[in-house]
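tokens incoming
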């Protein structure tokens, strides 16, 4: 069984599911998932979990993400990006550059965001994008988000380059919509590249065409340590955790009540665990390595 985390540089065109399918074929395993969808138009960091690493997906996908984005002003689309159908055009005010910093500052202060109707969010028992493609009315609620940073990298006639770091759940396509509105026009996202997802950067990524059985995976313990604090167990603690039993405090190296990656003395990932009621409790266990 192959276990570990793979950072893929997704090209423009394939869906995130398409990339997962290619990893499955390349590694010869069905147990593959990804941590954070990229739209077909988007490129860059796609964190792929293989084997036992699929148990880490909620932790791998929780961190902030960094993007390079291009917003084109004057043209709106139904999907809010360049893949969509054009829905309207509007003049771009000559004063838009003078208004830009104020519009960006308003976005930096954002705490709630209205997602695009073409999204995977559930509405009326179906995915919002499925309803939208059928022409049904889609009403979504605003969701809490956080903008860590937002800076201009390039300004052209009706085009704007941005570098931004945002929380999980933030839609850069919605940024294009809302920023254009603040500038007195319409707009859409014309390019997007994810350059970092939490602790995983584009510098670590492999190209889809380079995927094969010899591709190097980030080991489970190392991947877990990038997204969680770690705690080493005693040998007795390992046995308790493997059996799903409560782990006495004397067998834990940490008294922190956050979820930790619990490691065996040899560094193997044993479980995700936390303190509860004065003992350690297993949140998610991992299969022990077979002796080589």
């Amino acid at each position: 069984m192959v276990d570990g985390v793979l950072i893929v540089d997704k090209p423009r065109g394939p869906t995130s599911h398409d990339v997962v399918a290619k990893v499955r074929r390349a590694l010869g395993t069905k147990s593959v998932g990804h941590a954070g969808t990229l739209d077909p138009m988007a490129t860059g960091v796609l964190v792929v979990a293989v084997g036992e690493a699929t148990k880490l997906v909620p932790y791998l996908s929780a961190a902030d993400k960094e993007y390079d984005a291009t917003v084109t002003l004057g043209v709106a689309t139904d999907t809010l990006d360049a893949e969509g159908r054009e829905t309207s055009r509007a003049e771009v005010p000559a004063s838009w550059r003078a208004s830009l910093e104020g519009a960006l500052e308003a976005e930096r202060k954002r705490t709630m965001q209205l997602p695009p109707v073409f999204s995977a969010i559930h509405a009326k028992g179906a995915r919002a994008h499925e309803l939208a493609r059928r022409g049904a009315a889609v009403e979504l609620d605003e969701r809490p988000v956080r903008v860590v940073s937002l800076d201009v990298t390039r300004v052209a006639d009706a085009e704007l380059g941005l570098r931004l770091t945002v929380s999980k759940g933030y839609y850069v396509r919605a940024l294009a919509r809302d920023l254009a509105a603040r500038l007195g026009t319409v707009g859409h996202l014309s390019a997007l590249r994810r350059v970092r997802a939490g602790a995983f950067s584009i510098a670590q990524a492999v190209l889809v065409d380079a995927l094969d059985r010899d591709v190097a995976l980030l080991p489970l313990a190392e991947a877990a340590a990038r997204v969680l604090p770690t705690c080493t167990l005693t040998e007795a603690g390992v046995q308790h955790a493997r059996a799903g039993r409560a782990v006495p405090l004397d067998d834990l190296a940490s008294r922190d009540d956050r979820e930790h990656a619990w490691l065996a003395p040899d560094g193997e990932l044993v479980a995700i665990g936390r303190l509860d009621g004065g003992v350690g409790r297993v949140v998610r266990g991992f299969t022990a390595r077979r002796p080589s």
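note: The chain has a mean pLDDT of 92.
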